[in-house]
Each structure stands twice: as structure tokens, then as C-alpha cells.
Amino acid sequence: MLLRAPEVYSVYMNAKRREAAGHATADRLLRAGRRLLRAEGAEAVSMRRVAGAVGITAMAIYRHFPDRDSLLNALADEGFRELAERLRSRKYARGFGKRLVEMGNVYLEHALENPRLFELMFLRARRGARQFPQDFKAGKSPTANVMIEAVQEGMRRGYFRKGDAWEVVFEMGALSHGLILLYLGGRLAVSKERFREMYRAAFARYLRGMRK
């Protein structure tokens, strides 16, 4: 049976409203998951607790996230988008070395403000998390995509020695994440400001080693 134009429009609008309602519920679920993550860590982010926080049944959450890994990945991806936006919105000093140190500072401040999100983004094993090198070289890392631009340009202009720019970006990430992990884990008996100084100095030393 063919539908008349007004009926087709009504079906279309109802579908759009259901889609919008689904997106709104997914956003509420992510906000609830983020609150649990911030307060108690990733172990607290269960499908049942997140669903209960927004007033839907434990089964209803599976309409939006097929499993817990997909929910955790969505929370991590939200953190990566926030961090990438910070990296791209900042005005940096001239000079490749200073620019990359300042980018490292953006990573640091984001981690200090969101320690449990940092752990989920970079340290926790998650099925479906991006992996080096294939996902990075395919441009799937929003944060590494910002760093690679500066490293590749520095190599093209002769500021840095030639090499695998993606490996350099990954190594800088490992340096950053390792230092932050040690600080957040209580392994450094220094103030937060002293840690910031140590972190910046470590980045600067690494980048000096890349100079021609």
C-alpha cells in the first residue's frame, strides 16, 4: 500500500524524533558514565550503574552501547576529542621545540585535571582501543594527528634529524604518559609545580636529542 505525501512526511518526522531522542539518551548515559569515572574510576562504570543513573533499565542501555567496552571506548573518545580541541585551539610559541613542549604541557594539564579519564584513555586495556602503528598512521588518533604535523614540518625544514615521525610522536607520548603515571601513582615526592618543571625539562631534553 502506497503512503500519501503527508503520511510519508509523518513517518519521516517520527523517525527523526526517535533518532534525536536516542542521541539525547546516549549523551545522558555518557555524562553519567563520566561522573562515575571521575568519582570512582573505570571499575565503577558498569552498564547497570550508568543506566540507573539516568533512570532507564539495565537492558535499555544496550540499545545505545552494545557492551561495556563500547561504553568505555565512547568515554575515552570523548576525552580524546576534548584534548585534541585543546591542542588545536591553543596559540603556540614559534619554533618547533618550544611548540612541542607546549603541546606536552597541554597533555599534562588535561591529565592533572582528569586523572581517571587519563588512565582510561592511555593506560587501561580496552577492546577496540587504537593501536600503534596501524591506527596512528591511518590518522585515527585525534591527538597524535596534531603532534605529527609539528614533527613532520620540523623534519622537512631541517630543524630535526630525519626519521620516522610517527615513531617520534609515539615516543613523546610514552615519555609524557610514563611521567604522568609515576606522578599520579605517588612515586614522585615533589610538589605539583615541581613536577611540571621536571616534565617540561624532560620534553626539552628529548627534543634537543632530535636536533640536527
Short overview:
The model is unreliable at about 5-20 (pLDDT under 50).
Structure overview:
The protein is an all-alpha fold and 212 residues long. It has two domains: 1-65, Arc Repressor Mutant, subunit A; 68-212, Orthogonal Bundle (Tetracycline Repressor, domain 2), CATH 1.10.357. Helix content is 71%, strand content 0%. The chain has helices spanning 5-40, 47-54, 68-89, 96-113, 115-123, 134-137, 142-156, 165-184, 192-210. The radius of gyration is 22 Å and the shape is globular. Residues 7-22 have low confidence and may be disordered.
Overall mean pLDDT: 88
Q: Which range does the strand content fall in? A: under 5%
The description of the largest β-sheet is: none
* CATH homologous superfamily title of the largest domain: Tetracycline Repressor, domain 2
Give the overall shape, derived from the CA principal axes: globular
Q: How far apart are the first and last residues' alpha carbons, in Å? A: 74 Å
Q: Could you name the CATH topology of the largest domain? A: Tetracycline Repressor, domain 2
- What's the number of helices? 9
CATH architecture classification of the largest domain: Orthogonal Bundle
Count of DSSP strands: 0
Defining traits:
212 residues; mainly alpha; Arc Repressor Mutant, subunit A; Tetracycline Repressor, domain 2; 2 domains; 9 helices; 71% helix; globular
What does the secondary structure layout of this molecule look like, with pairings?
Layout: H1 5-40, H2 47-54, H3 68-89, H4 96-113, H5 115-123, H6 134-137, H7 142-156, H8 165-184, H9 192-210
